[in-house]
Design brief:
about 325 residues; alpha/beta; Rossmann fold; 7-stranded parallel sheet; two-stranded parallel ribbon; globular; binds nicotinamide-adenine-dinucleotide; binds thymidine-5'-diphosphate; dTDP-glucose 4,6-dehydratase; lyase; dTDP-glucose 4,6-dehydratase activity; EC 4.2.1.46
């Protein structure tokens, strides 16, 4: 099989490429990525000389290039997006452009070249759940996004589904919860907290810190996408989540501080994010029943593995914090 992976230099996309090439070494992967601030080819150093891996720098909004790359592949796995809620609040424009228009351009290319399309989306399209309720997002939860990020992802999901309903394009969608693990850009909560602790900096906690996310380890997410690609029903959307029982941001930060043997005086409460969704929780029973997927380990084990990775790979994230990582493409590829 030959896969076109969009956004493969980002956090989940690069984990997915490493996962796929180690599990299916005979398959070919084209990584199509614009290399925005979030794209980091250093994540893929271990495969850059693999003859079955190719990197193409480009924008998914570019019709011609997208069409050309789609021409020779069997499937598109679409990760490319602007992904950070806080940035979408500061400037929604790139979110509208990449997440909506870029998805449309890819869908057109998939249709023209008769290529299967898997769209990676988020649980944030469903809006927010009440704190302390037992409610979870499920297969019938209506869309109710609150941030420019989640609204742009919701639009992209609707577009993908419309290409199935209207043109019979073979699509699948996964809506997953907050991922964490290796190679996550240190602007997101867990890597930000760990790297700040190592540097002796404060950890900013938005509002009262009692916001709840449903944490999914990135390798479990990659396995879920693998199963959907291999055995998922065409036209269907799968919800993917973790094993945490309503753990708040402040509890996670306290766990990290405890594991790293540091004092809670590093916690700093700061102004809340506008439109901040209170709670996310996912009912992933459909993918469990249909495809046999479930997370492999519990949250605490994954959190320890993640802390360990960031402590051992300080070079990786320090090169991000200094901006050095953005020179890697020029040095290695040009
Ligand atoms: P990321 O921000 O780490 O990486 C995004 C990648 O897309 C980067 O490599 C970037 O260079 C690339 N990109 C951005 N605009 C592009 C464009 N116009 N053309 C080509 N490439 C472009 O994101 P991530 O955390 O790896 O998320 C991947 C996908 O998963 C996104 O679609 C996101 O919405 C979804 N998702 C992420 C999470 C999470 O917790 N990280 C949770 C649910 C869903
Ligand atoms: P984030 O990692 O940005 O993911 P998302 O907004 O997509 O859920 O944030 C996770 C949670 O952590 C969210 O409730 C916002 C909160 N948060 C903080 O309290 N402090 C921070 O510095 C960041 C980045 C996030």
């Amino acid at each position: 099989m030959k896969l076109l992976v969009t956004g493969g230099a980002g956090f989940i996309g690069s984990n997915f490429i490493l996962y796929w090439l180690s599990k299916y070494p005979q398959d070919k992967i084209v990584n199509f990525d614009k290399l925005t601030y979030a794209g980091n080819l250093e994540n893929l150093k271990s495969v850059e000389k693999n003859p079955n891996y190719e990197f193409v720098q480009g924008d998914i909004c570019n019709h011609e290039l997208t069409n050309q790359l789609t021409n020779s592949v069997d499937i598109i796995i679409h990760f490319a997006a602007e992904s950070h809620v806080d940035r979408s609040i500061m400037d929604p424009a790139p979110f509208i452009k990449t997440n909506i228009e870029g998805t449309y351009v890819l869908l057109e290319a998939a249709l023209k070249n008769k290529v299967r399309f898997h769209h990676v989306s988020t649980d944030e399209v469903f809006g927010a759940l009440e704190l302390n309720s037992k409610e979870k997002f499920n297969d019938t939860t209506p869309y109710n996004p609150h941030s420019p990020y989640s609204a742009s992802k919701a639009s992209s999901d609707h577009l993908v589904r419309s290409y199935f309903d209207t043109y019979d394009l073979p699509i699948t969608i996964s809506n997953c919860s907050n991922n964490f693990g290796s190679y996550q850009f240190p602007e997101k909560l867990i890597p930000l907290a760990i790297t700040n602790i190592v540097e002796g900096k404060k950890i900013p906690v938005y509002g009262d810190g009692l916001y709840v996310r449903d944490w999914l380890y990135v390798d479990d997410h990659c396995r879920a996408i693998d199963l959907i690609i291999q055995k998922g029903q065409i036209g269907k959307t799968y919800l993917v989540g973790g094993l945490t029982e309503d753990i708040s941001n402040i509890e996670i930060i306290k766990k990290i501080l405890k594991i790293m043997d540091k004092n809670e005086n590093l916690i700093e409460y700061v102004k809340d994010r506008p439109g901040h969704d209170r709670r996310y929780a996912i009912d992933w029973s459909t993918i469990n029943k249909e495809l046999g997927w479930k997370p492999e380990h519990n949250f605490d084990d994954y959190l320890k593995m993640t802390i360990d990775w960031y402590v051992k790979n300080q070079d990786w994230w320090k090169r991000i914090k200094t901006g050095e990582y953005q020179k890697y493409y020029e040095k290695q590829y040009k």
